[in-house]
């Protein structure tokens, strides 16, 4: 499950941007971009859980 967190956070940030920028309220843009930035930071952090193919190939040898 942890290896899919990057994809999940990227999709969540896209959904936040899509719906957040459609609203025409005060501070919506700043909040939308702030939440998107936080989701992208978490997505970048979770890339360490993606398995590396090179390490698997080395362990087989």
Automatic annotation (TrEMBL):
The chain crosses the membrane at residues 30-50. The keyword Transmembrane helix applies. This is Uncharacterized protein. The keyword Transmembrane helix applies. Keywords: Membrane, Transmembrane, Transmembrane helix.
């Amino acid at each position: 499950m942890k290896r899919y967190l990057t994809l999940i956070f990227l999709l969540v940030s896209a959904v936040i941007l899509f719906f957040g920028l459609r609203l025409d309220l005060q501070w919506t843009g700043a909040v939308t971009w702030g939440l998107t930035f936080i989701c992208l930071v978490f997505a970048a952090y979770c890339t360490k859980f993606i398995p590396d193919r090179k390490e698997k190939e080395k362990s087989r040898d």
